[in-house]
Amino acid sequence: MGIRSFLPGSLGFGTAPLGNMYRAIPDDEAAATVAAAWDAGTRYFDTAPFYGAGLAEIRLGEALADRPRDEFALSTKVGRLILDETEDPSARDLGEKGGLFEHGRPNKIVYDYSADGARRSIADSLKRLKTDRIDIVWVHDVSPDFWGDEWLAAFDSARTGAFRVLQQLRDEGVIKGWGLGVNRVEPLEVTLDLDEPRPDAFLLAGRYTLLDHEHALQRLFPAAQEQGVDIVVGGPYSSGILAGGTHFEYQKAPASIVAKVERLRALAEQFGITIKAAALQFSLAHPVTAAVIPGASRPSRIAEDVAALSETVPAAFWTALREEKLIAPDAPVPTD
Ligand SMILES: NC(=O)c1ccc[n+]([C@@H]2O[C@H](COP(=O)([O-])OP(=O)(O)OC[C@H]3O[C@@H](n4cnc5c(N)ncnc54)[C@H](OP(=O)(O)O)[C@@H]3O)[C@@H](O)[C@H]2O)c1
Description:
One of its GO terms (cellular component) is cytosol. InterPro entries: AKR, NAD(P)_OxRdtase_dom_sf, NADP_OxRdtase_dom. GO terms for molecular function: oxidoreductase activity. The protein starts with 12 loop residues before the first strand and ends in a 13-residue tail after the last helix. Helix 1 crosses helix 2, helix 7 runs parallel beside helix 8 and helix 10 (275-285) crosses helix 11 (299-310). It is 39% helix and 16% strand. The chain has one domain (13-323): TIM Barrel, CATH 3.20.20.100. By secondary structure, the protein is an alpha/beta fold. It has twelve helices and twelve strands. Helix 8 (214-227) links the parallel strand 8 and strand 9 (230-234). The model has no long low-confidence stretch (mean pLDDT 96). Bound molecules: NADP nicotinamide-adenine-dinucleotide phosphate. NADP nicotinamide-adenine-dinucleotide phosphate is lined by residues 14-17, 46, 138, 140-141, 181-183, 203, 205, 234-240, 243-245, 293-298, 301, 304.
């Protein structure tokens, strides 16, 4: 159980932006971003078929093709198959996340949480990633933000399909770990309540950030810790707003969030630190967090991320965040 034994380092790289998440990124810029991550020492890369309908996997596979495979860890996801048939990417129904990846490939995306679907998805990902193995496989977005009220039915099909296949592949040593990759806490809480199957870790995006962590902190994180299930924190910048971008939850940030980020930024400036340092170090401070995986589509972001992790953040900054009720009083901070 757990993924720390094989995860190379606590700073990984999330490739959702490389699927043309918000804009059409030139291939050479995408390649340079992965190269910058590699040169900075990053050895854990997360991707998914969903990111640009295969585009992020293809770009990542190309960028890592000449790197020694034993030196890095890869995670990708199952739950959506990418077909050869095409569709209008801007017309996809993505629930709350409409418009995402409309600049990606036009290949048709279909949900499939079945056992056969999971096996086929992994086979397709191996081809796009140009590799013979994947270290961690996450079951993707079996969650209310994509499924609304029907999420429990989708979850049940994953529970009896993809979950069992991934557990079997893990037990056979074909993959090293598996879990769910979601933007919501609820599917992870339900999974931890099951007797079987048993995941190794969860990728939880956007729910353990400076802007949003209370729910995860109350029940999910203690339960995961007790069961030896690690957390990989995705979306540590809440999809961009915490790093100087304009997105929150993958949409234009509302005024209330912009105002809260301004308060955080003002405090960070007062203590002479960057808001990126505060965001990344906060997400990593909880003992159940095994890694944090910020995303980026420009090479220059990588050096910022690496620098943010080594910045010295004064204990008084965290105290001020608590005093100003900007973080939960019981949220662990690095100096605890
Ligand atoms: N359901 C799931 O399993 C799930 C869901 C969400 C995320 N994830 C994983 O978590 C990873 C990280 O999440 P994320 O990429 O969605 O969001 P994120 O890491 O919270 O934020 C990434 C965004 O921050 C922006 N950014 C970074 N530095 C910046 C700066 N100095 N100024 C302005 N903007 C800046 C980047 O912009 P640029 O693009 O311009 O560099 C990028 O678009 C994903 O890539 C994915 O691997 C998984």
